[in-house]
Specification:
With 241 residues, the chain is of the alpha/beta class. Helix content is 35%, strand content 19%.
Length: 241
């Protein structure tokens, strides 16, 4: 399927689901999770060993300093044209749901409002006592931060060994099964359960448009458009008008 054919599918669609992964943020210059340790202090740590409830319980100060480092990096980064196109599409289609594996908040900063964050959001924190979630869009002056109730706050991130946010996958799958098209951007489709949206869509005969610099295990069955989402999505958008 060509760009023109993919655009035709989108033109005829009323209900659209978009799934995005780390590649979309990487185009803005933001490291992927496994690359987020940088070259300085954090180069000696394995990110996968910091992103666990056990690590937080053992040394909340260390874990918070790492997440504050990641928050700072996210604040220093701006949404790219791919983020911006997705945000404008909320007004172009009758129904659109954005499902993202990214935690950096770039989609929201680009203007997306109908977003399911499968893995949490760096710009949010959660009270350990009440479970209440708060949005904090400015850098913390010191960490660990504390809630007004006196309890420590934790990053509102899904750590290894934790369940996804309640209802997040159910909402994503429900929207996908009712969609006219599923568009996937910047993900290798190797992380589950997010990647499961693609086979569910394909089994229902729902067209899947895949935008990435490399093919995935599903690319032989999708409309694969090669290239970074920051280039491909604006091109697709221009064909919709």
């Amino acid at each position: 399927m060509s760009f023109d054919e993919a655009a035709k599918v989108l033109k005829e669609a009323k209900k659209v689901v978009i799934l995005t992964g780390a590649g979309v943020s990487k185009e803005s210059g933001l490291d992927t999770f496994r690359d987020a340790k940088g070259d300085g202090l954090w180069s000696q740590y394995n990110p996968m060993e910091l992103a666990t409830p056990q690590a937080f319980q053992r040394d909340p100060d260390l874990v918070w300093r790492w997440y504050n480092f990641r928050r700072d990096k996210a604040f220093e980064t701006s949404p790219n044209p791919g983020h911006e196109v997705i945000a404008t599409w909320e007004n172009k289609f009758e129904k659109l749901l954005l499902v993202t594996q990214n935690v950096d908040g770039l989609h929201q900063r680009a203007g997306s409002k109908k977003v399911v964050c499968l893995h949490g959001n760096l710009l949010q924190v959660r009270c350990l006592k009440s479970g209440k979630t708060l949005t904090k869009e400015e850098p913390f002056e010191s960490v660990p931060p504390y809630c007004q109730c006196g309890s420590m706050l934790r990053p509102d991130i899904v750590w290894f060994g934790e369940a996804l946010p309640e209802g997040a996958m159910e909402k994503s799958l429900g929207a996908t099964l009712e969609a006219d098209v599923l568009l996937v951007a910047g993900t290798s489709l190797q992380v589950y359960p997010a990647a499961s949206l693609v086979p569910y869509a394909l089994q229902r005969g729902i067209p899947v448009i895949e935008v990435n610099v490399e093919q995935s295990d599903f690319s032989s069955k999708t409309c694969f458009l090669s290239g970074p989402s920051g280039e491909v999505l604006p091109k697709l958008d221009s064909l919709l008008s």
